[in-house]
Design goal:
This protein is mainly α and 480 residues long. It is built from 19 helices and 2 strands. The chain has helices at residues 4-21, 23-32, 36-57, 67-85, 87-90, 97-108, 124-152, 171-199, 204-215, 232-245, 249-256, 267-290, 295-310, 325-337, 350-368, 385-411, 416-427, 449-463, 467-470; strands at residues 377-378, 381-382. α6 crosses α7.
Length: 480
């Protein structure tokens, strides 16, 4: 049986925190004398009122949650927060609720797809709210990926279970402590990124906003030109910190705790960094040889765009869709890759590719050594059959969702390239797609409302690793 009261209380607690965060852009609106002050004030009051009702209704001495409660809470958190966080947008000049919800869901899932234009002249408070949504969504997903998804055995994440992922009585204080430490590391990296951006030529407001959306691998910018509006140095800073955003935050936390941080000893991290370097250099050399462009510029452009897409940040620098067929197909597949588990990045994740490759190699080996008995290991841990099954299930569901979403988008009147790349970029939480309409040089404003709602659902499914939401549709989930 579902524990309704604890769920209501926790959702109310989250909404009360969201109401509090709405005060930050409200301060910016009041400071700059912007009309959006009223929108944020009303939104904060309404959100706070609903939060108070939920907390009063759900007040209960026992806040113990079972596994079904955790599945439902995880899915409801992103959905309900998005429904309320969209209010400042819809109360803003001329933004309907469909666009507001799309922008918000894209923000909290750190996807980065946008329906807004005229960012260079937009109110500071709205720009800050977009960035803040991505920053909060980033740290929220990290905590979920480290403490909740391994416990739920979603998509092979059990492989990264820590002592704080057991959700027993003794594990709860450890989980809280870990969440606090992760938040502090996340905040420190954001500050470092902001300072680096400022010294690379950005104004402080732009630097702060881009720091929040870089570490969260979200990709919202304060300019319609995205990162092409800033210096080459700022673009290199972005490349570095986007790559950092794709790394497991636990590694940085262990470093600050003065433990041994064996980066190259971590199989996932090594594979991730080597992959980024090889793909960036390969595309850079190809671009240098086939385009009239200096080698240094070719490496800068390809490195930035490759890291942006692989980490699912989605910043725009140049429209790589116009680089030719080789680059077009390369970036289409790069959208699916993703960063490391325990990072803010979306996508399939590097560890799943590595495990799949290992299983494939052993399967080939068994064709000529049928009696051989092998045990798969990853980072020193045994890869059990249930982890492999979970990864296979996740991969099949991911493919199925992309195919279904692509078909829905085609039925709304979109062309095949826009439909396929739009589905991939939503489910992988990348941001821009391919083609003139939703590519790096465009946005999603011109899409039909049905397409926007469908893509928003795709973003939610991708951010929650699909299985977390899919289990809610199984009849057995609601029987007892």
């Amino acid at each position: 049986m579902l524990n309704i009261k604890p769920l209501l209380f926790l959702l109310g607690l989250l909404l009360s925190m969201m109401a509090g965060f709405m005060c930050l852009p409200l301060i910016f609106a009041l400071y700059y004398g912007e009309e959006t002050a009223g929108a944020f004030m009303v939104s904060a009051l309404l959100t706070g009122t609903v939060a108070s009702i939920c907390m009063r209704s759900g007040k209960h001495q026992d806040l113990t949650l079972n596994i079904r409660d955790m599945f439902l809470l995880t899915s409801l958190t992103w959905l309900i927060v998005s429904l309320f966080a969209a209010m400042p947008f819809t109360l803003y000049h001329g933004i309907n609720y469909t666009d507001a919800f799309f922008e918000t869901m894209s923000g909290v899932t750190t996807t980065g797809s946008t329906v807004l234009s005229g960012l260079d002249k937009m109110d500071h408070s709205i720009l800050m709210w977009r960035s803040l949504l991505q920053w909060l969504g980033g740290i929220g997903f990290i905590v979920m990926a480290v403490a909740i998804l391994p416990f739920l055995n979603v998509g092979g994440m059990k492989l990264f279970r820590t002592e704080s992922s057991d959700w027993g009585d003794k594990a709860v204080p450890r989980t809280r402590s870990m969440a606090k430490d992760l938040f502090l590391v996340y905040l420190l990296l954001t500050v470092m990124c902001g300072v680096a951006y400022h010294f690379a030529g950005m104004q402080w407001f732009d630097a702060i906003n881009h720091a929040m959306t870089t570490l969260s691998t979200g990709g919202y910018s304060t300019s319609d030109k995205s990162m092409s509006n800033f210096s080459d140095s700022a673009q290199w800073v972005g490349t570095l910190f986007m790559a950092a955003g794709g790394l497991p935050l636990l590694l940085f936390m262990q470093c600050l705790q003065r433990r041994s941080m064996k980066v190259w000893g971590d199989q996932q991290v090594k594979g991730y960094l080597v992959f980024l370097i090889i793909v960036s250099v390969t595309l850079g050399v190809w671009m240098w040889l086939t385009r009239d462009i200096a080698f240094a510029d070719a490496i800068r452009l390809t490195s930035f765009n490759v890291v942006s897409v692989v980490t699912t940040t989605g910043y725009g620098l140049t429209d790589y869709g116009t680089w030719g067929g080789f680059a077009f197909i390369s970036f289409l597949f790069l959208m699916l890759v993703g960063g490391c588990s325990g990072s803010t990045a979306g996508g399939i994740k590097i560890f799943r590719f590595q495990i799949a490759l290992s299983v494939m190699k052993e399967q080939v080996k068994q064709q000529f050594h049928p009696n051989a008995v092998t045990r798969h290991r990853y980072n020193g841990r045994i890869v059990t059959d249930d982890i492999v099954r979970s990864i296979v299930t996740f991969s099949l569901l991911l493919t199925g969702v992309i195919v279904l979403l692509s078909l829905i988008l085609v039925l709304t009147g979109l062309d095949p390239v826009t439909s396929l790349s739009g589905a991939i970029t939503a489910v992988a939480n990348v941001g821009p797609g391919l083609g003139p309409e939703i590519g790096p040089a465009g946005n999603f404003a011109g899409l039909p409302d049905l397409a926007k709602w469908s893509l928003a659902i795709g973003m939610l499914l991708g951010r929650l690793e699909i299985l977390t939401v899919a289990v809610l549709f199984h009849p057995g989930f609601w029987k007892y």
